[in-house]
Amino acid sequence: GTNMATTGVRDLLEIPNGYGNSVSGAFATLPGNSVNYLPDNTPDAHLGGKPDDVLPMPEVFDGAVAFQRAWFVDKNDRRRIVASLPGLWGTIDANVVLFPDPYAEVQAVYGSGDKLLVLTNKSVFRILLSDDGTTFQSALISRQANCVAPASVCDTGDGGIMWLGQDELYYMPPTMDSPPVAAGHAMRETLKKIVWSRAHMSHAVLDPK
Q: What pLDDT is stored for residue 25 in this prediction?
């Protein structure tokens, strides 16, 4: 196991058998390292390898899957987005921590394949993979569009999405690389009836009719 707080290094360290149970007052997240099987399919080279640089899983406000990673909005700091290691959706990559808009709270994230959209209460961003394929960056799409409710994000069936913003419904086309367009003209009277202090609780579903 590793223990940065105690050792200051990320090397693999041996935990003696039954350590958490045999020492008075000791605490261990695992009761011990005894096993009754042999990991025959694990290469010896893995024993000397450095573990991945990871972070604790935050309390999650919203999440999505894109780039073969899980992306999470930190509930305790809604400006902050973290990503898992590829294919390991519960293991947070310490090298992928983004603040798309330092002055706005992320309301929702939407992912599809290699596309990830970030909707804040003041703006819309897209997350892009770097040319070398090792890092990510955020690109501003719009400061006019916004989002007020994570559960209002709805797939429109054509690869695009819609969501509820302040005083407006927005539609993002499938390419997700151009500013969203206002799409609430047919529901203008309904929008006027929304109690905006409770709009964050809004939900949306697609009616195929």
A: 47
Tokens of 168: 């407006």
Closest to 11 (Cα-Cα) out of 46, 42, 49: 49
φ, ψ for residue 4 (rounded to 5)? -65, -35
pLDDT band at 6 (very low <50, low <70, confident <90, very high): low
Distance in angstroms (rounded) separating the CA atoms of residues 1 and 12: 6
Query: What stretches of the chain adopt beta strand conformation (E)?
Result: 54-55, 60-66, 69-74, 81-85, 88-98, 106-112, 115-120, 124-129, 136-142, 154-155, 161-165, 168-172, 181-182
Other Cβ atoms less than 10 A from the Cβ of 47: the count is 8
Q: What is the pTM of this model?
A: 0.73
With a cut of 90, say whether residue 74 has pLDDT above it: yes
Residues ≥6 apart with Cβ < 8 Å to 97? 55, 80, 81, 82
Q: For residue 81, count CB atoms less than 10 angstroms from its CB and return exposed for 0-12, middle for 13-18, buried for 19 or more.
A: buried
Kindly give the residue spans of alpha helices, DSSP state H, lying in the chain. Answer: 4-7, 19-22, 188-192
Type of residue at 122: K
Q: What is the edge-to-edge ordering of all strands in the sheet holding 81-85?
A: 54-55, 88-98, 81-85, 69-74, 60-66
Positive or negative: CA dihedral 62, 128, 148, 171: negative
